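fyi for ur records
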Amino acid sequence: MRILTHNLLTGPKGGYPLELKVEQVEELEAEFDEEYVKRLIPKIEWNGVLSALSDLHSQGFFKDVDLPKEAPPMDCQDANLLKKIHHVINEIKVIDGQLVCPDTKATFAVKDGIPKMIFEEGDVTGRT
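which gave:
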């Protein structure tokens, strides 16, 4: 599951962002397209990206990767920043771990890079 995918996911009652608990992560190589990243900036939930990166940092992953607290403008000309954004959202992949809803504390497994977002009504104690 790439961080871009994580950015789209919510808990069973809309809880966002989901906390990442990572067991295995890998770095991918994806072709950098500056215009694509610029178009993506206004469409992503910036605080969700920062939250995912913070979760990764707290677990010892990608501590050397940082992003600004505010999303850059769509017409950003800082190629280095755009490459960092690209790296975080497209090249970091959670292979195994869990997603935890901040509202219900429901827990969802990430296995082989696929988040399993199955939730049964009334289950607010968590599932794996």
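The two ends are 16 Å apart (CA to CA). thats all i got for now
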